[in-house]
Amino acid sequence: MMTQYGSTAGGDTGTGSAGERTRRENLDRMFNPRSIAVVGASRDPAKAGSQALATLAGFPGTLVAVHPRETEIRGVPCYPGLADLPEPVDLAILAIPARACVQAAAEAAARGVGGVFIVSGGFGETGPEGARLEQDLVDICRHTGLRLLGPNTSGFVNPAAGCIASFVPGVDTLAPGRIAVLAQSGGVNLSLGYLLNGLGEGVSIAAGLGNAADTDTRDMLELLAEDDNTDAIALHLEGVNDGRALYETLCRVTPRKPVVAVVAGRADIGDFAVSHTGNLMGSRDRTVAALVQGGAVVVDTLDDLAQAAAVLARRRLPPKPRSAMTLITGQAGPGLLITDALKTAGIDLPELGGATLERIGGLLPPMTYIRNPIDTGRPGPGFPDIVHAAAQDAAIDAVLVFGISEPSVLDPAQALTPAHEATGKPVLFGTLGPDGDLEKARRDLRASGTPMVLGPDRLALAGIVLDADARHQWLLAQRGDAPETPDAPGGAALTGPIDESAAKALMRSYGIAVPRSMLCESRAAAQRAFADLDKPVVVKIAAADVAHKTELGGVVLDVRDAAQLDAALDRIARIPTAAPNRVLIEEMAPAGVDLILGGVRDPSWGPCVVIGLGGVLAEAVADSAVAIAPVGRADVAHMLDSLRGKRMLDGFRGLPRCDRAAIADAAAAIGRIMRDHPGISEVEINPLRVNEVGALALDALVVLGDDAGVQ
Amino acid sequence: MMTQYGSTAGGDTGTGSAGERTRRENLDRMFNPRSIAVVGASRDPAKAGSQALATLAGFPGTLVAVHPRETEIRGVPCYPGLADLPEPVDLAILAIPARACVQAAAEAAARGVGGVFIVSGGFGETGPEGARLEQDLVDICRHTGLRLLGPNTSGFVNPAAGCIASFVPGVDTLAPGRIAVLAQSGGVNLSLGYLLNGLGEGVSIAAGLGNAADTDTRDMLELLAEDDNTDAIALHLEGVNDGRALYETLCRVTPRKPVVAVVAGRADIGDFAVSHTGNLMGSRDRTVAALVQGGAVVVDTLDDLAQAAAVLARRRLPPKPRSAMTLITGQAGPGLLITDALKTAGIDLPELGGATLERIGGLLPPMTYIRNPIDTGRPGPGFPDIVHAAAQDAAIDAVLVFGISEPSVLDPAQALTPAHEATGKPVLFGTLGPDGDLEKARRDLRASGTPMVLGPDRLALAGIVLDADARHQWLLAQRGDAPETPDAPGGAALTGPIDESAAKALMRSYGIAVPRSMLCESRAAAQRAFADLDKPVVVKIAAADVAHKTELGGVVLDVRDAAQLDAALDRIARIPTAAPNRVLIEEMAPAGVDLILGGVRDPSWGPCVVIGLGGVLAEAVADSAVAIAPVGRADVAHMLDSLRGKRMLDGFRGLPRCDRAAIADAAAAIGRIMRDHPGISEVEINPLRVNEVGALALDALVVLGDDAGVQ
After folding, report:
1. ipTM surpasses 0.85
2. B191 touches chain A (CB under 8 A)
3. Which uninterrupted H or E stretch holds B477?
4. Which of B117, B107, B118, B165 is nearest to B140 (CA)?
5. Any alpha helices (H) in B364-406, and if so which ranges?
6. Is A616 close to B408, i.e. CB distance below 8 A?
7. For a tag site, which of A201, B292, B548, B672 has the least CB within 10 Å?
8. A613:B615 CB<8 A
9. Which fold has domain B325-479?
10. Scanning every residue of chain B, which has its alpha carbon at the shortest distance from the alpha carbon of A200?
């Protein structure tokens, strides 16, 4: 069966480039093909062109092949070239060497093919020559609307469409299902497919993007967001080139379909460079932060990725900062481990309401533990009613149930399904037992869409990802509420170098509080300023040619009287500089907790905001959090909550309870500064002194990049 | 078949208590029974006594039942009481209420039964009355040598012996294998059994200890260490009563059999009390530290526990501080994730030797990545030789191989087995693929004992636990080398309260350096001391009735001349105390990095040593490490390496590079102080000032417990 698109040439623009609609339609054709051509078909079983035909043997649509001489291979009709195909196919698989692919792609485009999949390597990943070939392919795609998967990938499968566009034998065993796999690596794509199969799950579309010359992660996310067969997306990323655009795509996609991601590069954690806030967080941290801000759930392993996607494909919680759950367990020991994991992850296991407890109490023998978790002991006839009662508790968003398989006393579908159906709340089942029991339980629960996972650890994981998904969606929804300073000055050009005084003026103009100060060009001016300001003051050298003020003795603290002022000015005057008498006299800040607040510009993710606790130890333990700008109050609260030393903010050891709203406002302002001034490569407030009533930038640094002042 | 033991009465002591040999033999009889009696047998399928007979239907030995009236149930001959049994059975299963168990146990002991297993609850876990029943059971065991499993447990299985001593249906599906499961909770025992089955593994003995009134973790570890069917032990702990003894057992067992453990209570991490070093680490941290010191590998989840035990049952590395590994992967993407996880865990992936690289280079096409990891691209015919070459590299202790199943190009047994056989080094396989392929690969690899795991995450885990096992065994072997101060004074009785000066004297007597100081009872004495000491000095109030010296202004730093000394003495004299002129004059310490070093006495684990970085932030981020005393240099190095802020010790940000040997010696001394003085409940050096050439105790606190001075 052929599609409705006779030509891939862009009909909706007149610019010589294919239109977006055509590109989008062709992407859909490629991944849901009803006709496929194998270019480079072969009778030699060792050749990719033979393997492609073998894996496509069960394809229910039209299958043709391109071969210079043959008229038929394995029962598949052959044509000498793509131009000779009787109809334009949705997908052409190019099982030919790299150097032949450009010509083939051009022919495919001319014949109205939807997309081509190139398995070969030998392109951008190998050097300049390969990169040229790859660019030629990209040009053909851009101009004609032809889509390209790869090159350098093991391909994709769409089991429901009977399309096994991969040369790896065994991939045809991947079952159809409702989880999409989207991997940067073909090997990870296959791994995830098999891991999902191991969980009893199948895939809708599972694609390895390879070099992603044309079809990239964003294209796929947009496609999958609209795909009726996909309920959740499992995403694997190694590196991200156009992060900001990916973030924006995620913001659109994740409210519709849950996205779970693994990001390679954990080993870089701890690999912190030592000189700048900009290097406090490795780029993987920025990637993870941006994915979370885009509403995705990020996990550490492929095992967790597969399991999380399987759960979220069936159930999501409504957006909420923290979801409340209850655990009902038939066995105390596993229940303790689940509770442990949930609490370690910060999940709220609140006290159940009095009516709930009373109802459950009537269903359980004395001496069972009825709080949260609820330990029923070995499940009895009242188990379904206990689940139901817990689900009906107004304080509870989701119910987790664990029970080792005992079919004679616990029928999972009967125990869990009514509670979900009556309340609409997710009710999840964790179990273990003989294989036969598990298969039956999974079959029974599938009808109601109840997630079932194996073992205590995975039930805890299920709860944790439900909560994370709901929180990230809540954060995403809040972001529209990020406070904007009405009088934000916009992108007035800055010229460098920018000294502390100018940097603080910039901060102040964005609403960040700074100490009262006066910039003095002479000793007399300094003395007048001293008279005017509240004592004690700090005297700082303000020469633009002095970078390391403190190290050179250019900062004198706690100056209380005229004699001390004179001594300070004398000391500073001895520092070799072109402007020895230029000083900043500044009121001493009250005591508080010192943070570092910075802004950096990531080549992929754009402006980012970084917050950490101040001091050498905080740097040594790398205790900081990053987010891509703009950030709202909720984002900053989330960042602060992720700090290991967050207790420092809450009145620890006699320290003041910090004004978190003031921190959030300052962080949001840093985001706006970065947004408004593309010429700034980095800003840093170190320290940001915080106490009960505000946050004060005691020192400020603004670094202009090479593109300083260029919008 | 009956055993050789006609009576359980202790024949090898004359004290009225059963001898250890009898107890040990009876434990062996109970867990490897050749004859079983079910007490409380029943025809009612809802009763435990019926379920017990059902699960034992396949038992190959002698099966009898006790029932007051019946002569036969389900074909099993019944006797009215245990006394009436024709022969003393190895195991009696008491499927009767709690209150009837004591009488039954007494009868069992009299009839020469090896051990009884009590499933019922209603004992110690329910209150004083139950505790009395439980104590009666314990008394019977102690006096007669009868062993008891439980009460309050789901029992145990020994599939190879055909013994399913559990009432949970389905447990009979657990396959025989070479991994022992030892769980505090019956539910966790079953969970682990099923998880192992899911990995294609079986169990030797899988036991849930329940209340562990008689048979406890130590007994089981000793039994399993000798068990010819057990190659690794999977251990689950919730709480440990006699930790010190468990540690000593582990020290004996783990060099013979690998032990992997999960400890419940992670949620307590971060639940740090705020006032003492003693509370810096929750008790779970002490448990984990002690298990590691005993040579066990501790993991976080049951999934990891099952997988780690399955790997270590087949391969161990020789004791070594860090093992070096190489990864050979057929797919780059999964290889990157494995490398990531290994490096994050600190595994050494060294450069391969030149000869190795040359040999491998000849086997691979150009442009494959031949460093460490080695990315072969799709496996080719040279794959086995690559594995072989890597295994032969002298720098490599273990080889990890990952390849998605492609039976036509990669035969796992052929690729991996020769490399192991030629070198004796562990060669591990990680894979994924269609179920049939995996089953065949697992079967093929089983013959050579090659561990096979599913997916990238688990291959990384396998490498990580091999390394941890080898490191913990190395640490255990080093512990004999803990430096002992020859002139250690032993347990001279201490009387309290102990002031700073006395505390420092104690430290000094154990070889811990303290600043030069003089305790002065008058202003004149203080002035003489000042003249004698190097300047600057610190002047500290030394009144025993002043606890918070610094907060009260009782510590004056940086005193450089006579006027400053007078001012300091004046200031201290104003503090209300019975001894206003008693001061400690002490030389100021050079700059350095401040640590906290402490000793605490854990009720279960005994004396422990705690090390953390100094300062409020370090406390807020809970960056400290604990070990049970005694500790050697290697232990302390391990502790310091576990600090998140360990970079602070290595010349971070201009700080001195710390003398780790001096820290280790001080920590070892703290351990000896705790050992020698049982009256001390807590010691704390805060700060321990460390620089390039030593560690100096600037302040010291010794707290005597209620048992102060009592040996």
Report:
1. yes
2. yes
3. helix B456-478
4. B107
5. 383-392
6. no
7. B548
8. no
9. Rossmann fold (3.40.50)
10. B435
Question: Quick one: three-class SS letters along A469-505?
Answer: HHHHHHHHHHHHHCCCCCCCCCCCCCCCCECHHHHHH
Could B262 and A343 be called an inter-chain contact, meaning their C-beta atoms sit closer than 8 Å? no
Asked if B435's CB is within 8 angstroms of A302's CB, the reply is no
Rounded (10°) angle between helices B217-226 and B243-253:
10
Angle between helices A186-198 and A302-312 (to 10 degrees): 60
* pLDDT tens-digit series, residues B67-88: 999 999 999 999 999 999 999 9
Q: Which of B547, B642, B646, B675 is nearest to B281 (CA)?
A: B642
Beta bridge partners of A325: A398
Summarize pLDDT for A587-645 with one digit per residue, the tens.
999 999 999 999 999 989 999 999 999 988 888 888 899 999 999 999 999 999 999 99
Mean pLDDT of chain A: 89
Distances (CA, A) of B127 to A426, B100, B124, B502: 37, 17, 6, 46
pTM comes to: 0.93
Instruction: Please give, rounded to a whole number of angstroms, the shortest distance from the CA of A692 to a CA of chain B.
Output: 18
Cα–Cα distance for residue pair B521/B502, rounded to 1 Å: 15
Give the torsion sign (CA, B581, B587, B588, B594).
negative
Q: Is A485's pLDDT higher than 50?
A: no
Choose the closest CB to B333 out of A185, A455, A646. Answer: A185
Task: Identify the pLDDT of residue A103.
Answer: 96
Residues of A in Cβ contact (< 8 Å) with B330: 187
Q: Please check whether residue A556 is in contact with residue A538, taking contact to mean a CB–CB distance below 8 angstroms.
A: yes
Handedness of CA A671, A676, A682, A688 (dihedral sign): negative
**pLDDT above 90: percentage of residues in chain B:** 74
- pLDDT of A321 above 50: yes
Q: Which residues pair with A625 in a beta bridge?
A: A611
Secondary structure of A406-454 in HEC code, one letter for each residue = CCCCCCHHHHHHHHHHHHCCCEEEEECCCHHHHHHHHHHHHCCCCCEEE
Q: A687 preceded by cis ω (within 30°)?
A: yes
Q: Which residue of B has its CA nearest to A186?
A: B333
Is there a contact between B134 and B125 (Cβ–Cβ < 8 Å)?
Answer: no
Q: Which residues of B touch A458 (CB under 8 A)?
A: 303
What is the least distance, in Å, from the CA of B151 to any CA of chain A? 15
Domains A20-312 and A325-479 share a fold: yes
* Å between B333 CA and nearest CA of chain A: 5
pLDDT greater than 70 at residue B6: no
Q: Which strands make up the sheet holding A297-299, listed edge to edge?
A: A163-165, A156-158, A203-208, A176-183, A232-237, A259-263, A297-299
Nearest CA in chain A to B380: A46
* Distance in angstroms (rounded) separating the CA atoms of residues B613 and A29: 60
User: Is the bond preceding A630 in cis, omega lying within 30 degrees of 0?
Assistant: yes
User: Does A173 touch chain B if contact means CB atoms closer than 8 Å?
Assistant: yes
What is the topology classification, in CATH, of domain B593-704?
Answer: D-amino Acid Aminotransferase; Chain A, domain 1 (3.30.470)
Interface test with B, best of A194, A195, A347 (most B CBs within 10 A): A194
Average the pLDDT over B221-227 and give the result: 97
> What residues does each domain of chain B span?
20-312, 325-479, 516-587, 593-704
Q: What is the CATH number of domain A20-312?
A: 3.40.50.720
Query: Which CATH number is associated with domain B516-587?
Result: 3.30.1490.20
Q: In this structure, are strands B555-559 and B606-613 parallel, antiparallel, or unpaired?
A: unpaired
- Over the range B11-21, which residues count as b (16 or more CB within 10 Å of their CB) and which as e? eeeeeeebbee
**Strand, coil or helix: what is A79?**
strand
Q: Does A658 touch chain B (CB under 8 A)?
A: no
Q: How many helices (H) and strands (E) does chain A have?
A: 21, 30
Q: Which helix (H) or strand (E) holds A38?
A: strand A35-39
